[in-house]
Amino acid sequence: MQGISSRDLVGQLVRLLPEVEPYLETAARRHGRRASQVTHWDQVNTHPGTLLSEVLAHPLFQPRMESAEMDAADEEFLAGCFDFIEGLEESPGGELVETAYFTFVEPLMESREVLDRAFRFAGPRTRAEILAMLRGWNVPVDASWEAERRA
Fold this sequence. Notes:
The chain is an all-alpha fold. 60% of the residues lie in helices and 0% in strands. The protein is built from eight helices and no strands. Helix 3 packs parallel to helix 5 (97-105). It is globular.
């Protein structure tokens, strides 16, 4: 995954995770636009993390991360989400790293099950960010979380 820049955030989001389109449409309507007219996050929100929370994290990502059961479609969607998060982590100049952290990484502290699920899908930079967060908060790190693996 190539790093995602602030300029390309909306285009990459819709390309990688088309499931966000109805939520982007709702956000765009509030600003007198259609989703197809939104080319940059600041057209519908004041911060990229706000947009990503509204159209991806809260309605789609977190419910699947916290779900007791997952099917193949959920696994495919989460793999795409973590590819997207990895792209944020690799943003040119680090411009979206904090957005990735506060929007996606920090909420993973919900439970051990959520963390287990995250480590199934997380790419190398996201995995390192999660581990650094856990260590920074003095949360015991399971040895299985440190092993490189990808669903």
